Amino acid sequence: MSGTLNLKDASLLKTACYIDGAWVGKGAIDVTNPATGEVIAAVPSLGASEVRSAIDAAEKAFKDWAARPAKERGQILRRWFDLMMEHQDDLAVLMTSEQGKPLAESKGEIAYAASFLEFYGEEAKRVHGAIVPAPTNDRRIVVLKQPVGVVAAITPWNFPAAMITRKVGPALAAGCTCVVKPASQTPLSALALAELGERAGLPKGVLNIVTGKASEIGGELTANAKVKKLTFTGSTEVGKKLMEQSAATMKKISLELGGNAPFIVFDDADVDAAVEGAVASKYRNTGQTCICTNRFLVQEGVYDAFVEKLVEKVGALKVGNGLEDGVNQGPLIDTAAIEKVEEHVKDATSKGAKVVAGGKAHALGGTYYEPTVISGATSDMLVAREETFGPVAPVFRFSTEAEAIRLANHTPFGLASYFYSRDVGRCWRVAEALESGLVGVNAGLISTEVAPFGGWKESGIGREGGQWGIEEFLEVKYVAMAGL
Ligand SMILES: NC(=O)C1=CN([C@@H]2O[C@H](COP(=O)(O)OP(=O)(O)OC[C@H]3O[C@@H](n4cnc5c(N)ncnc54)[C@H](OP(=O)(O)O)[C@@H]3O)[C@@H](O)[C@H]2O)C=CC1
Ligand SMILES: O=C(O)CCCC(=O)O
């Protein structure tokens, strides 16, 4: 298989699961390249009992791992970061082959994913407690921070590496151990990460990767009382279900769910800069990220200019197999994804919107879809309410700042928002008025390992990244030292 993928280090193509430091199970679930439809590998379909053994291994490894000095845990994470960067090219080929994103984006994601290991390797040393002034002189109030224990992580296919390291990096840095269930469509990146983690010196049981039927694995991970924390990125529907399932054992939870990101362009914006930000925010990963713009809200004075310039830029995007040179947009992940995109475009045009770029399946066939722009979008359309998760840019028109804010916030979701304006007063006002966890002001790409990432409203609970990300894996303990 690695022959087909032409990896420099063939041992990065792993097709077994990783439990307690051993590679277990045989190929049962096909992994398909969405660019070609070709099966590139098969991974095991583990059941509840194997997941239980992974949880047991993580629990057994927890005591020693948590007891290691933070500096030592940090050094292992740092070595893991170095190995990821050393193998960036191979990891990117694996990712593009199972996920479809252009190779340059995959390389970017590997560097982004590795940055969480680097950052949290350093942050491990900064898990500070506190000594609080006590109300009487005979005692001291001490606040300790300790790892929560075994962590279950369930991750999606759109960022096959970064969604794992963004969880596992801080969890391991804090002293927790992990059982990870990657998406069935993109398990190869996860398994390659485990191989590199082992080479970096992770002791057995500290990191475990299981693949198989989602409901069965998810059922065990949420029901098992040994798991103290669940961290999930994926659809809102599954996130809510996992939250419900985790209630019985009162697990700590972090959920990073769907969004419906608005991108507002005010009359005073630099329209060229806005168009550049729009393309980056909308068409990255073929529109399949939870922070991709879902709705462009453009003020009437620059509406026509924005649409015209956007159409021109979008027309220059090259669609194709992500492994080929110069490709900007790969295929969608699967047929269900392209069907959703088609439904949204059909619904919008049936309600009066006009397709001004793309608007149909791409001539390459399969799950390729043309980069699309729709003008005249209105709030009764599906594109206004639902996450399209595809390369479609619906452009809505508004007249006042108050109307833009109302439209932007008119959604149960609150993950990312973007806006372009050159008025500093407006920049502060609007940034503060938007109901979302992330706001890009004159910027369409804002993800970084040092900042908090997470949603308001139904977009989720908790934060990943920066100093906030590690808190999710720590318990706070108040120790009253009395009789002094
Ligand atoms: N917020 C985000 O970043 C993402 C949002 N989405 C949104 O969700 C839509 C559907 O995408 P989809 O991939 O189906 O997202 P899901 O939420 O279904 O998948 C995300 C992860 O959850 C797992 N999963 C699915 N069902 C269960 C379950 N019952 N118990 C435990 N784990 C489960 C999946 O496993 P398996 O792969 O084995 O099914 C995968 O590992 C997309 O079109 C998009 O709108 C999707 C991905 C990421
Ligand atoms: O789509 C997601 O689930 C993750 C967002 C990617 C990013 O961190 O930019």
Automatic annotation (TrEMBL):
Quote the catalytic residue positions.
Answer: E256
Q: Which UniProt keywords apply?
A: Oxidoreductase
Instruction: Enumerate the transmembrane spans.
Output: none
Pfam families on file:
Aldedh
Q: Does the record's keyword annotation contain Ribosomal protein?
A: no
Q: Which terms under GO biological process does the entry name? A: gamma-aminobutyric acid catabolic process
Molecular function GO labels: succinate-semialdehyde dehydrogenase (NAD+) activity
Gene Ontology CC entries for this record: cytosol
Per the database record, which ranges form the Aldehyde dehydrogenase domain?
27-479
| PANTHER family membership | SUCCINATE-SEMIALDEHYDE DEHYDROGENASE, MITOCHONDRIAL (PTHR43353)
Identify its protein family: Belongs to the aldehyde dehydrogenase family.
Protein name per its UniProtKB record: Succinic semialdehyde dehydrogenase
